[in-house]
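To whoever picks this up:

The nightly regression suite flagged serine C-palmitoyltransferase as changed. Nothing in the input moved, so I suspect the structure step. Input below, exactly as stored in the fixture:
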Amino acid sequence: MASIEAMWEELVVRVLARVDKKDFLRYLPRVCLAKPSAEEDPLADVETFDGPGPWDRTLLEVEVEDPTAPAVDGEPARNRMLLFSANDYLNLSTHPAVRKASAKAALAFGMGPRSSAMNVLAEMHKKEACVVTPTGFAANTAFLSALGGVATHNAASRRPAAHEKIAVFSDALNHASIIDGLRMMERHQQAVVSVYRHSDMQHLDELLSNCPFERKVVITDSLFSMEGDFAPMLDLVQLRKKHRFLFVIDEAHTAFVCGRNGGGIGEVYGIEDQIDIIVGTLSKAGGCLGGFVACSQKWSDLVRGWAAPTFSPPLPRYPSSRPPTVLITASFPSATTAVTVARKEGWRRQAVWNRVQEFAAMTKHPATSPILSLVVGSEDAAIYASKHMLERGFHIIAIRPPAVAPNACRLRVTLTTAHTSEDVKRLVSALSECVPGLNRPVDQIAARL
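Regenerated output under the current build:
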């Protein structure tokens, strides 16, 4: 029996043979800039440090406008806040090396083609190849549109018959970009989508066992952005062996943060070879902009040649049998710089996890990631709690429907490298006044406000 990888690779090869009959993608050159001089090279002198610097606090200690206070000299009044609501986990967006690389690249090349982060990202996730997209959202829709192409171009007629569709199993709390990509596949009649209860492996096993389709795909976030919990990766790997599905994970919140080298959840468990496709973003712990799909070379060719979201600017409508074949997007040099810094400054990952452990010890809250999901109940309760935190000098927003269920509104707190132990102590003190389970019930603070 062919391996999971071989079965899917064969399907991809068939698609490439149909959509690229003249083997154009093989000869499609990658645009390369002239090699810069030593003075112009954005990556020539990447500085790293053994500890935090003043730049790490730049985007944590912020000022926000106060709409309730009278204007001062015609300008809106401002309050100083400590930011606990961003996703810049390693604070790389303000790192001197990233700043310098971006500035040097702009001076040398303007806003034209940029250097590529494809190779370094593929290496980080132990994959053959990588496709870089304009955003992390586009990375998911790009891959899923390519996956839909597998169904379309392996079909006997114009539309896949029932047995030719792909069965996709998606966690109930997957990111909106995954949901949109799956809806796109459903609209084109390429997939039958089943949603399994959040991290419920028994439910997923039942759905897979009752599925008559040969082509099965399971897609999940590795770290869920609104819950702050991890997908049960080892259980998913066991189910992959049992049901032979293509395993796709979104590492948006774990790339750079998890693993000794920042390789994400796959590196943590040593299961990189059991994960077929890795989708990620550079706008969170990467500290810059862009998304990526790390995969095999054949999958990379298919995404580059088929997936419309990898193109910028948007292209006109095209027949499904003739997709565009020229990839014209690239990454900013700071993406490569960020990977280098993240690897060399391993203390940054450790600092984040130290803050997580401190928060858990102080509150007895089961914190397992830098995302702290503090459920308070109703929408009003979440708004009151957020307002209280703002008054105490902490920028923390209320998460409300449709992002979460009406009775599960919450405060979403994120910890970063630049937060200190003292910051966490002050945070816990303020939270204990408005979050149930940490100290006082939320209805008491709501009544006071």
